[in-house]
Design brief:
By secondary structure, the chain is of the alpha+beta class. It is 41% helix and 12% strand. The protein has 43 helices and 25 strands. It is elongated.
Length: 1285
């Protein structure tokens, strides 16, 4: 606490009808003139509040009045129900400070004749409107056949249609509210206090002690309840005991979770729980205001140790209904009778709709399940069954207003009766002290006591005697009830349920501290660099959890509540920890001491949980503190008692603070050992810490200001919302860039971005949610759950209509550019298998014979094209799914900013869909928003390709043969097959002389390899292929497959098929440049043939350097998690990959390379070694071979033989490629090299300085390949296709 002394209650307020102002229409509640006067809402006023002001918590009259009367002032007659209603509320300041309110709304008779005449006049005007034909035309519901009431303006109780008021026959009643404002949410205690005041108001006889005395006592004399203590308070006609948890117990929750579980089933409770944890928008709806607070506070308590950081308005007044447009996370509650129209109007993708009265919950789309969900549900069910209090005869409906229970000392107490008789010990002591108050001898004794410091006043003697009486009754006298009351049982129930949720938070975040990154030396430097520092290693934290939990944990670690939790932990190294954090840390320490292994443990009642429950029982049965007893005020304080009317209170008395209250408060605290005064330095440190925390939280959402609801204030609030959106957009795009650019370039040589982890998907999903919130802001009318997709549909319809108006009827408005992605002949649009067809292009014919070189045109760039591609995806069923697919596709194509700019360029459409204050209609904010999205073009995403794995993709394939030396034409039947990270195609036959074809196939993912070959048929089968291009016609991603080799028997190495490795083409390369590259031979053939003598030969040091680099890249690749690795094919077989380096190793010092040029290949040498080793293994009589060497020889012979027995279409270089890949996978390659280096075949075919004969170079090869032994290397099926091991 910032102050040494703080009172329990800050304010007591009275609100209702201001007689001098009369009936003021509540304009902020909307037009309700079509309702009868008794059904309309009127503007309430604060009639009085005491005291005038409290330091640190100024009275907010507008907010209190609005929350005490969320539906405005209501009026009724003697024919209507006038039962009082209790509800609590919450005021959240812009700095995050909360004040809790308790309000009791009663109906008080209107005696003022002018007010009654005014109501009669309004009634007559309304009747005149009913008889007016024109009015019935404008308002059809004014007809007698229609209801006079509007559902949104009706009170929770049923009001008859056509409600009438007759001044002569009817008595008019208006709502008046008495309320308490406190910073401590002792809701049950405050309810009983207000109810006791109301009971006194209804009594016919005046009370023995005026209500002013009780109100004065609670706002001036009752101190704040310290943690871990219970206090007894004297209310009219009853004594009440309240209690507050200790600093090691879970924070105070004075709402019954038993009612929460009676209103909803477990699945719905957990759906709301997950929505709040993931900071989705949560909208509550109920007829009862108290139920809105119950659900809001109950769910907020379940997320401990985390704290909701965004807009929090459990009771949203009718005048603030426009806040539902807020494009930020929120928890809001609305009161009404019919939730269906509201739910239809507010349905959004990231909105959780909760109808409390029916127990229905409509959770957001794709809401991930909480980790250990099944175990959590089972533990909750067992606990509910254990609670005997659930077996009572209560119905499934909650009580009308909070807790309903008897007086703490029984319902038959006659406290404060007119005759002064009482059976309570406390009151008998008070009466006796009253007799001694003016005793002269006692005055002298008190003077001596004050000097000695023993006792200071008669009040201390009164309290000491009361304490003694209480202690005496603890031994058996009936001062307390033998069993716990309902309130204590509710607190025990709350504790048991919250302990279960806390158990799973401890299980999930038990090791969170290990992943905190703290580099700042002091708090000030940490605060200054907060935005640029990474405080938590989310990737390492996620990798420490099971895969099925990542779908929830990944987005949760991106929430504001988790960031604030980590910030509080870092700040705790300089300052005392946050209260919630301190409790969590204490529980975590005990949890880790009990835990013997890292496996999930079922919930068990820890010692701390048992201690907390025992303390609740102890505080309920043994009172620690007795609050000062209200007494007759010396300045008078008596007020006129009139049954049914709340008395007019004296401002002069209630605003006057008692003399010496500070000193008495300090003595009170010293007496009970409650001194917590901090030094000036400590106080300054706490204030500085609070300031820093507020700076951190300032990036959160703006809280509604209930005090100022004029037009200017609404505009300022809307501007702050838009600032929050821009800041969030900047933060998310920056986070996405850092996450992507911080990844290591595992794609060496072929540019493949392979990291597609849960974290990246979470960031993109978060961006989709942000876009939905932006597009939902300021909508004129909701048209579906996805505001973004609705805008796209309207844009498409508008474009189609304009195109139809501007073009002749026979022309289609669909662009002709789309024909490139649609089959030209045969086949359905979404086939189950692969379909192939040639793409017919208008090319200029050349005079030379042979096929014409293909050309690749540019894909059309248009919002409509991508939208229609998304619409053709049959696996998507909802508008939200379409919108997310569109965002992912645009992001992958680096067109997100451009597409959204095009979408917002239609100003006429924007004006028809959005209100003036909408984000999309604010030009400056819109431009900044697009600028932030444009920065995402700096990195490559495959978020569409890797997410929608079942969609059908059109692939365009262009083959570039060598036209010189008759290499471009072949009489053979050619084929090819594509492989990607998600699958592969069957063999696809290529039409004769067709170099430009398109195929339809299920999404292959990121392409990795291609096999291309032919059957060697015809008179001239040889075919020279330079490159093959493949383009995904939906995403536009293009891959180049370099070859540069002959296909055919008797040509090159005799291969009839070759494996080509994909190289993604950067999006910055245009079509013309790409065509030029593909018309020239590749710099690195796939796989390489032996170099010609005129080609420069690599030096030993260069080969060693290249081999070291590729092995190092492989090590880094396999050190990543399996999901982040992607494909290793490029590192093995791609440009400058392992196979390329091993070719140079075997070619270096190869004698036959000089003697026979290209006639002898590396595979020829390996086959000679095979023959030699088979001879040794078969001649066991002359050769004795060690077991380990024999095993190596056998594995070599087996692998080489299997490769030779594979398809005859494999060439010699292709066989060597398989040999290297299998050797690395099976950890045999280094052993084979050592074996080969010792054979006489090597001495015959290699020079002495070669890699295979120089002992130091052989040792280098063995050592560097040994570094790959610890990894489990898996090969794509396309690499060893046809080889049966």
């Amino acid at each position: 606490m910032s102050q040494i002394y703080q009172k329990l209650v800050d304010y007591f307020a009275i609100s209702g009808l201001n007689i001098s102002s009369g009936f003021e229409p509540d304009q902020l509640s909307g037009d309700n003139l079509h309702c009868s006067p008794l059904e309309r809402s009127y503007k309430p006023r604060i009639l009085a509040h005491f005291p005038d002001n409290v330091l640190g918590n100024p009275f907010d009259a507008e907010a209190v009045c609005m929350l005490c009367h969320p539906r405005g002032l209501n009026f009724r007659t003697q024919r209507d129900s006038r039962e009082p209603k209790f509800h609590s509320f919450l005021i959240t300041k812009e700095d995050g400070m909360r004040s809790y309110g308790a309000a009791l709304t009663m109906y008080e008779e209107i005696e003022n004749k002018e007010i009654c005449v005014a109501m009669q006049t309004l009634q007559a005007m309304h009747m005149a409107e009913l008889s007016n034909t024109q009015s019935r035309t404008l308002y059809p519901h004014l007809s007698p056949a229609h209801s006079h009431g509007s559902p949104q303006h009706k009170s929770p109780d049923k009001i008859s249609t056509g409600k009438m008021y007759d001044q002569k026959r009817d008595t008019l009643y208006g709502t008046k509210c008495i309320s308490i404002i406190s910073r401590l949410p002792l809701i049950s205690t405050f309810e009983q206090f207000l109810q006791s005041l109301y009971d006194v108001v209804l009594e016919q006889d005046p009370p023995a002690l005026a209500l002013t005395s009780y109100i004065y006592s609670i706002i001036h004399e009752v101190p704040v309840l310290p943690p871990g203590r219970s206090m007894r308070l004297a209310f009219p006609n009853q004594l009440v005991v309240c209690q507050r948890p200790g600093i090691t117990e879970l924070p105070l929750l004075d709402y019954s979770m038993r009612d929460l579980f009676l209103l909803f089933n477990l699945d719905n409770i957990l759906a709301i729980f997950c929505s709040v944890l993931l900071e989705r928008q949560v909208l509550l709806f109920s007829r009862e205001f108290q139920r809105l607070m119950l659900i809001s506070e109950g769910i907020s308590a379940l997320i401990f140790p985390f704290h909701w950081q965004h807009v929090y308005v459990p009771i949203l007044p009718a005048s603030l209904i426009h806040f539902l447009d807020a494009p930020v996370p929120f928890i809001m509650g609305l009161q009404g009778t019919d939730s269906k129209p509201l739910f239809e109007a507010c349905s959004k993708a990231n909105l959780c709709l909760v109808d409390i009265d029916s127990g229905a919950v409509e959770s957001p789309d794709d809401l991930p399940a909480f980790p250990y969900m099944s175990e959590l549900k089972q533990d909750l069910l067992q606990e509910l069954q254990r609670q005997s209090s659930l077996k009572d005869d209560r119905s499934g409906h909650q009580r009308d207003s909070g807790f309903v229970r008897d007086s703490y000392f029984g319902s038959d107490s006659a406290l404060g009766s007119a005759d002064g008789s009482t059976s309570n010990l406390k009151w008998s002591i008070s009466e006796k002290l009253e007799m001694l108050q003016h005793n002269e001898a006692l005055s002298k004794v008190m003077a001596l006591s004050r000097k000695s410091g023993v006792k200071s006043s008669l009040e201390d003697i009164r309290e000491s005697l009361s304490d003694a009486a209480i202690l005496a009754h603890r031994s058996g006298v009936s001062a307390t009830r033998a069993s716990l009351d309902d309130h204590a049982k509710d607190l025990l129930f709350n504790s048991s349920i919250r302990e279960i949720f806390l158990h799973y938070f401890l299980q999930i975040f038990g090791s969170y501290e290990e992943f905190i990154i703290g580099t700042a030396q002091d708090m000030e430097s940490w605060i200054n660099n907060r935005e640029t520092m990474q405080n938590f290693d989310k990737t390492a934290f996620l990798s420490d959890h099971a895969e099925e939990h990542l779908h929830f944990l990944s987005p949760f670690t991106e929430t504001q509540m988790f960031a604030c939790f980590i910030d509080n932990k870092i700040l705790s190294q300089w300052e005392d920890p946050d209260a919630n954090l301190a409790i969590f840390e204490g529980r975590l320490k005990m949890f880790q001491e009990d835990q013997t292994d890292q496996r999930l443990r079922k919930f068990y009642r820890t010692a701390a949980a048992k201690e907390a429950e025992s303390m609740i029982e102890k505080r309920a049965t043994i009172v620690d503190i007795v609050a000062p007893t209200p007494k007759k005020l010396e300045d008078g304080g008596s007020c006129h008692h009139k049954p049914g009317f709340f008395p007019i209170l004296s401002s002069a008395i209630l605003n006057k603070e008692p003399a010496g209250s500070r000193s008495r408060a300090m003595q009170w605290r010293i007496k009970y050992g409650l001194t917590t005064a901090k030094s000036t330095e400590q106080k300054h440190t706490f204030e500085q810490r609070d300031k820093y925390i507020q700076e951190i939280r300032s990036k959160g959402s703006h809280q509604p200001n209930l005090s100022d609801m004029n037009l200017k204030a609404m505009v300022n609030t809307n501007l702050k919302f838009m600032e929050t959106l821009l800041k969030e957009c900047k933060t998310k795009t920056k986070r996405m860039l850092v996450q992507k650019m911080g990844q290591e370039a595992v794609d060496l040589g072929h540019g493949e971005v392979t990291v597609v982890g849960v974290e990246e998907n979470t960031l993109i999903a978060s961006l989709c949610d942000l876009l939905e919130r932006i597009w939902s802001h300021g909508l004129q009318q909701k048209q579906g759950k996805s505001a973004l997709w609705s805008h796209l549909v309207n844009y498409n319809n508008d474009h189609a209509q304009k195109s139809h108006e501007n073009q002749p009827p026979e022309q289609s408005h669909i662009s002709s550019d789309l024909t490139s992605s649609v089959p030209l002949e045969g086949g359905s649009s979404c086939p189950s298998g692969t379909q192939t067809w040639p793409v017919r292009r208008q090319h200029r014919r050349k005079a030379s014979r042979g096929p014409e070189m293909p050309a690749l045109d540019t894909l059309p760039v248009s919002v409509l094209v991508d939208m229609r591609n998304v619409q053709q995806m049959t696996e998507i069923k909802t508008d939200v799914g379409y919108a997310r697919a569109f965002v992912r596709l645009s992001l992958e194509k680096k067109l997100l900013s451009k597409h959204l700019k095009e979408l917002m360029s239609n100003q006429e459409l924007l004006r028809s869909l959005y209100k003036r204050y909408a984000f999309l209609r604010c030009e400056d904010e819109r431009e900044q928003f697009l600028y932030h999205l444009l920065s995402l073009n700096a990195v490559d995403y495959y978020c569409f390709t890797n997410t929608f794995t079942a969609t059908v993709i059109v692939y365009r394939i262009l083959v570039f043969p060598r036209l010189k030396l008759s290499g471009g034409a072949t009489t053979a039947n050619c084929w090819l097959s594509l492989s990607g990270q998600l699958g592969e195609t069957d063999k696809l036959s290529l039409p004769k002389h067709a170099l430009d074809i398109s195929i339809q196939n299920r999404n292959l993912g990121i392409l990795t390899t291609m096999r291309i070959g032919h059957d060697n048929g015809g008179i001239s089968p040889k075919w020279m292929v330079e490159h093959v291009l493949v383009r995904n016609e939906i995403t536009g991603q293009t891959y180049r497959f370099p070859c540069g080799r002959w296909l055919g028997k008797g040509a090159d190495d005799g291969a009839l098929e070759r494996l080509l490795v994909a190289e993604p083409v950067p999006s910055t390369v245009d079509a013309n440049e790409l065509m030029e590259r593909c018309r020239t031979p590749p710099r690195c053939r796939s796989p390489s043939m032996p170099r010609k003598s005129n080609e420069p030969r690599l030096l030993v040091s260069e080969i060693q350097e290249k081999l070291s680099d590729v092995v190092n890249n492989l090590v880094k690749h396999f050190c990543k998690t399996e999901k982040e690795r992607g494909s290793a094919t490029g590192l093995l077989c791609g440009e400058y990959g392992l196979v390329y380096c091993m070719e140079h190793v075997f070619q270096y010092g190869f004698k036959s390379s000089r003697l026979f040029r290209n006639r002898v290949f590396i595979w020829d040498f390996l086959e000679k070694v095979l023959s030699y080793l088979e001879t040794l293994l078969s001649d066991t009589e002359h050769y004795q071979i060690a077991q380990d060497i024999s095993t190596t020889m056998q594995s070599y012979c087996y692998i080489v033989s299997c490769i030779n027995q594979a398809s005859e279409s494999l060439g010699k270089d292709g066989r060597f490629q398989i040999f290297v890949c299998i050797g690395v996978r099976d950890r045999l390659l280094q052993r084979w090299i050592k074996l080969i280096s010792k054979t006489p075949i090597t001495a015959t075919m290699y020079e002495e300085q070669s890699f295979l004969r120089d002992p130091s170079l052989v040792q280098f090869l063995i050592q560097i390949l040994d570094s790959l032994k610890e990894f489990q290397i898996s090969l794509e099926a396309s690499l060893i296709k046809g080889v049966n091991l």
